[in-house]
């Protein structure tokens, strides 16, 4: 009987920390758990891609307040960690070379401004060798960017 009591006490002690760790996780995922329909399926589709290739996720929150999804082939999507603090909620970034080769004249585009200064819906050009304010370092080759304000 003494051994059974010790076992029950151990189970209770071990289970308590697990329950307390679950509470913050459920609060952390409240936005995801609240989704339904297509929104839920879209988030799950992205989660599956990231599970397959976690290196696509880049944390640039210290540099720009953004998480980046580097899907490859010269494409990247930036997501604002706190969209209420910026008009650059989503920023799409593309390698300029293929479009320049197809005839795009990047000189007709505005140069990429400082972080937080993009006008949503306007295309920008970042010449090769310039610092990308969303990364705080130079990118490999010229880049085209457009910001979206979802609010």
Q: What's the main sheet like?
A: 7 strands, mixed
Share in helix: 25-40%
Number of helices: 5
Order of helices and strands: HHHEHEEEHEEEEE
Strand arrangement, largest sheet? Answer: 1-2-3-4-9-6-5
Spans of at least 5 consecutive residues whose pLDDT stays below 50 are: 1-20
Strand content: 25-35%
Helix/strand structural class: alpha+beta
Nearest-angstrom radius of gyration? 22 Å
Number of strands: 9
Q: Termini distance?
A: 63 Å
- Averaged pLDDT: 85
Rough shape? Answer: globular
Identify the notable features of this structure and list them briefly.
9 strands; two-stranded antiparallel sheet; 151 residues; disordered N terminus; 26% strand; 5 helices; alpha+beta; single chain
Explain what you see.
- The N and C termini lie far apart (63 Å).
- It is built from five helices and nine strands.
- The strands form two sheets. The chain has a seven-stranded mixed beta sheet.
- It is globular.
- The chain has a domain of 95 residues.
- The longest helix is centred in the first third of the chain and has 27 residues.
- Strand 7 and strand 8 form a beta hairpin.
- Helices cover 37% and strands 26% of the residues.
- The protein has 151 residues and is of the alpha+beta class.
Write the layout of secondary structure elements.
Elements: H1 2-28, H2 30-33, H3 37-52, E1 57-60, H4 61-64, E2 66-72, E3 75-80, E4 90-95, H5 97-101, E5 110-111, E6 123-126, E7 131-132, E8 137-138, E9 143-148
Parallel strand pairs: 5-6
Antiparallel strand pairs: 1-2, 2-3, 3-4, 4-9, 6-9, 7-8
């Amino acid at each position: 009987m003494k051994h059974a009591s010790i076992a029950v006490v151990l189970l209770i002690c071990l289970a308590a920390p697990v329950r307390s760790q679950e509470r913050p996780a459920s609060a952390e995922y409240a936005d995801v758990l609240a989704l339904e329909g297509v929104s839920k399926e879209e988030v799950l589709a992205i989660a599956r891609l990231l599970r397959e290739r976690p290196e696509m996720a880049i944390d640039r929150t210290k540099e720009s307040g953004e998480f980046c999804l580097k899907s490859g082939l010269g494409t990247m999507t930036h997501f604002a960690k706190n969209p209420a603090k910026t008009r650059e909620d989503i920023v799409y970034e593309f390698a300029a070379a293929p479009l320049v080769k197809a005839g795009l004249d990047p000189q007709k585009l505005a140069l990429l401004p400082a972080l937080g200064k993009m006008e949503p819906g306007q295309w920008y050009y970042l010449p090769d060798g310039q610092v990308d304010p969303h990364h705080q370092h130079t990118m490999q080759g010229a880049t085209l960017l457009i910001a979206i304000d979802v609010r």
